[in-house]
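Quick one: structure for this chain?
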Amino acid sequence: MNNFFYGKLAFSNLKKNGKLYLPFIAAAIGIGAMYYIMLAITGDKGLDEMNGAAELKMILGLGCGVITLFSVVLLFYTNSFLMKRRKKEFGLFNILGMEKRHIGRMMFWETCMVAFISIAGGLAAGILLYKLVMLVLLRITGLEIPFGFEISVSAVIGMSGCFLGIFAVTLIYNLFQVGKTRPIELLHSANRGEAEPKTRWLMTLIGFVALGVGYGIAIVVKNPIDTLLMFFAAVLLVILGTYCLFTAGSVAVLKLMRRKKGYYYRTSHFISVSGMIYRMKQNAAGLANICILSTMVLVMIAGTLSLYAGMEDVVQTMCPRDIVVRVYGCTTEQREAADKMLDQALQEVGIEVKEEKDYMALSVAAWKKGEEIRICRSSETGIAEGTLSQLEFITLEEYHRLSGEQKELSEDEILVAVRQGEDGEENYSFNGKMFRIKEYVDAAAMEGLDNNVIYDGYIIIVKDQNILNEMYDMQKEIYGDRASTPDYCIYADVAGTRQQIQECAGKIEEQAEIYNQGRGEQETIILRVDNQVDTRENFLILGGGFLFLGLFLGFVFLMATVLIIYYKQISEGYEDKDRFEIMQKVGMSPREARGAIRSQILKVFFLPLVMACIHLAAAFPMMNRLLLLFGMQNAGLFAVCTLIVTGVFAVIYGIVYLMTARSYYQIVWGSKR
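Got it. Here's what it folds into:
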């Protein structure tokens, strides 16, 4: 037999098993196209000339890594479904006289054909869709849309090399599986695992504990920084718990249901429960994968969508006014100089101030536990007992100007505005120096003061500059060169266009350079100028990049979910076909058998979706705190986006069920009902 014979046989086999291979090839083409697009975008030299392109490419680079890893896992996983259905066919070839080396050649040609179609199709689809996807990305991020069309040679090589490697490794794995198995085992491989699964209580307990600890981390950890550090631990625990519960916990629950005689010995319940016990043993990993992938789709799209939709809230947090000037380590002379720089810049541009607020404040990091506030280095012992907080000290005079309210304080009294944290204490002790809290005031009266959203924040109003200097000296002695300095901030809304606002901010920076050049050896001014226009554009790139990546990867994960669901339906269809025939032979009517099987399939099919929604609900507090790291404080918007994404995904999930169920019913009953 020559190689041409094996090629014809391989083509015939692929054609005969089209129902199995077409979804696999379609998924490989889809993932290949998306991989090419992601590589082409990250390597696009035209983006380098645009503002914010570096940050965008960094985000998309992460996406390339995720898709590379996911491509390997998904193609290997779906390949296992194909091999499970083909082993019987290979065993028959072996018994009919074909040696395993001949089967190996046939498998080689099959893999070559599938690989060629997948890679060529993926490249063709990727090249055709690249410009459209690029336009969507640039539209989301607000970047300029370039003209022209080109094919990325590096992306072609990268995608082809990656997929050739994946198919080569899957071929080696398949050859090993067939080579080590005897012909009789290949023939009966599809019928393995029919023994009733044992109840593994230890694994069930591990699943509940892992899931409980993962949920606990997501709910209990309050600080956004701690949440970021614990995020991956929580994710790994939830994944472990999901696999354990689907593998062992589901069997344990079903067996408990079987012990309830009044419930179990009913026609629909008897068939449904007994069938699900065996189904869970064989398909627990697939159901767990569907659950995890569904959760990833929901979390990723809901998070990135809310971040993009809440862009204005984030901009207001990062830059609450049109122009913000912050002078670090400011002296009285520099404060006056900064005011003049703003006035001169406004005059040169030809715009006026609509509203302005300015203040001098000292920002200090400290550990707070009730009334005790410790200003100390993080290496000192005992600090874990408190909560890391940001303290903003201002004088009573500054408070009067900001709020318009008149208060009186003695030297040992303070006013406190709680932006985020505990209230109700009667005193504060700063490293042993005691102050009585005379009154809690409204933090909203001091707009623009302390926009930190990560740590607990307290605004402390002291009597005068002398007290403020004492607090500065206290933290200077502890932090040394890293100590905070009194900073002067100007928040101004102006009557001008976007271009005028940007021009005004630029002129302030130019005047600061001129001021420093004329200082000689004298102390120079260190300032930072932000404006809402640039802040909005920069965040649009960041938020848009994350949204694009979320939608992109979400679609990849959704495609993987659909593929796994399809192969589960096909596998279970072949298994249930024999069971259906047996049910009719023992006297069960076709209507009863179909109803029992339909009920069983529906329960198993939608179980991962229910678990994914539970995971999402538990992850909501953690995701909300992670969004705080980006300045996103609108929990209501995040909740709305989460509900919308969940609803849309549930509809898509249901449509996928109806579509894949047709193949299942065709196998079992010979129709598409």
